[in-house]
Automatic annotation (TrEMBL):
<dbReference type="Pfam" id="PF00171">
    <property type="entry name" value="Aldedh"/>
</dbReference>
<protein>
    <submittedName>
        <fullName>Aldehyde dehydrogenase family protein</fullName>
    </submittedName>
</protein>
<dbReference type="InterPro" id="IPR015590">
    <property type="entry name" value="Aldehyde_DH_dom"/>
</dbReference>
<dbReference type="InterPro" id="IPR016161">
    <property type="entry name" value="Ald_DH/histidinol_DH"/>
</dbReference>
<keyword id="KW-0560">Oxidoreductase</keyword>
<dbReference type="InterPro" id="IPR016162">
    <property type="entry name" value="Ald_DH_N"/>
</dbReference>
<feature type="domain" description="Aldehyde dehydrogenase">
    <location>
        <begin position="10"/>
        <end position="458"/>
    </location>
</feature>
<dbReference type="InterPro" id="IPR016163">
    <property type="entry name" value="Ald_DH_C"/>
</dbReference>
Length: 469
């Protein structure tokens, strides 16, 4: 049973583009958390015994339903988090594709046999872990939830989902839609902020806590799980570096840097957070990057411009601007942006900074906003060394014409994903393990099925004949 009592005051959600109230939710307390987990436990045995093909069929049907309402989900997402509609629609469609992927992979997930004595059989058999608590973020609320929930369901687990308190309506709409294709209790949804997540994470009957979000929340979840024995999967965000090597086309590199820094307002788990640019191309790169930044506007209005939505709320804008203002006070230079605009909403301009030192907070911590902090370095080796000198370990990007440098970089960078000559992209089904402060465990891909299951080794020998006197 859970004992901590959270603040049960209603949570108000405002459209970050207009400041208008778009909804209100009541956070779940101990009784609601106990009820949801209890229902998941009660449904567990029957769902685990359901054939993998039937589980996959339910998830595949849910995927089709999600695809059918993708536009509705995108509008909800846009109104709650400010994510530009086209990006939000892409996230909803990606969620449908992710559910379809796990519907295909689930029945193929299998164990293996071991070679032992002729008369014995040895098997390593995966099975569901039990109740999965899926705690998901606001910056891509539908696609992230689809990954964790889809992998958990097709492997026979039941799920209690807590979407972010900053995107509760789109989170609940998605989860309720998926749950409508499942037996009662297999997937339930809880509203609430950190206190509700803490109750869920510390619940004795939860077997897996899968979380995508902040470092602080990830640490709290890990501490709670240490007391219950639950398995923990964490993606805690990162401080992803981009290295711009000498010899690259500076205009092309600037386009890559802008995309990595400004997409979704810089509110992507693998956004570019710090840039190390070789002095040989720095002047041209900074000029091109400043020009690129001017194309990212609050609302697209002309050919060649790109949508830069608001930050998720004013609290996040205050966090972003605090990093920028501190850097400017420390001697950094703003080539573009760097000031809080007037008017409604939580908008912040696409910003380019240079003149940074390694000790500045904007270099050392995740800013999570539309800011491209550029540090000019004298050599590729210096840029790589400074990129590596960081406790986070989510992702990194290297732009270089030198494949020896690319090889050196991907081996040296202590992160889950290294991208060479592209800030985004990757084959379907990819998975990686974050390191350091960025978390632990595989997210997405076939490997996530392994994380959601426990392997049991079974040794079977024939019973000897009964001795009869």
């Amino acid at each position: 049973m859970t004992t901590a009592v959270p603040d049960l005051a209603d949570i108000e959600i405002r459209d970050p583009a207009t400041d208008e109230v778009v909804g209100c939710v009541r956070p779940a307390g101990p009784e609601q958390v106990d009820d949801a987990v209890g229902r998941a436990v009660a449904a567990g045995a029957a769902w685990a015994r359901t054939s993998p093909a039937d589980r996959a069929g339910a998830v595949k049907d849910a995927a089709a339903a999600v695809r059918a309402v993708a536009e509705e989900l995108a509008r909800l997402n846009e109104s709650e988090t400010g994510r530009p509609y086209d990006d939000a629609l892409g996230g909803a469609l990606a969620a449908a594709g992710t559910l379809e992927q796990y519907a295909e992979l689930g029945p193929l997930h299998r164990g293996r046999s071991l070679q032992g004595n002729w008369s014995a059989t040895d098997l390593m058999v995966p099975g569901p872990r039990g109740v999965v608590a899926a705690i998901t973020p606001w910056n891509d609320p539908v696609a992230v939830a689809a990954g964790l929930i889809g992998a958990a369901l097709v492997t026979g687990n039941t799920v209690v989902h807590k979407p972010s308190e900053r995107s509760p309506h789109v989170g609940r709409r998605f989860a309720d839609l998926v749950a409508s294709f499942l037996p009662d209790g297999v997937l339930t949804v809880l509203d609430g902020a950190g206190p509700t997540g803490a109750l869920l994470s510390a619940h004795a009957a939860v077997d897996v806590v899968a979380h995508v979000g902040s470092i602080a929340a990830g640490r709290a979840i890990a501490e709670a799980a240490a007391g219950t024995g639950a398995k923990v999967l964490l993606e805690n965000g990162g401080n992803d570096p981009l290295i711009v090597d000498d010899g690259v086309d500076p205009v092309w590199a600037a386009g890559q840097a802008a995309l990595g820094s400004y997409a979704n307002g810089g509110q992507v788990c693998v956004s570019v957070e710090r840039i190390y640019c070789h002095a040989g191309v720095a002047d041209e790169f900074l000029a091109a990057l400043a020009e690129e930044a001017t194309r990212w506007v609050y609302r697209p209005s002309a050919e060649g411009e790109k949508a830069l939505g608001p930050l998720v709320d004013r609290r996040q804008r205050e966090h972003v601007h605090a990093h920028v203002a501190e850097a400017l006070q420390g001697g950094a230079v703003a080539h573009v942006g760097g000031a809080v605009p007037d008017g409604a909403g939580a908008f912040y301009p696409a910003t380019v900074l240079s003149g940074l030192t390694p000790q500045m907070r904007i270099v050392r911590e995740e800013t999570f906003g539309p800011v491209a902090p550029v540090r000019v370095v004298d050599s590729f080796e210096q840029g790589l060394a400074e990129a590596v000198d960081d406790p986070h370990g989510l992702a990194a990007t290297v732009l270089t014409p030198d494949m020896a440098h690319a090889q050196e970089a991907w081996r040296a960078l202590r992160v889950g994903t290294v991208k060479v000559n592209a800030v985004f992209g990757g084959a379907p089904g990819g998975a990686a393990e974050p390191r350091g402060l960025s978390g632990t465990g595989f997210g997405y891909g076939p490997e996530l099925l392994d994380e959601m299951t426990a392997t049991k080794t079974v040794h079977v020998e024939p019973c000897p004949p009964r001795h009869r006197p």
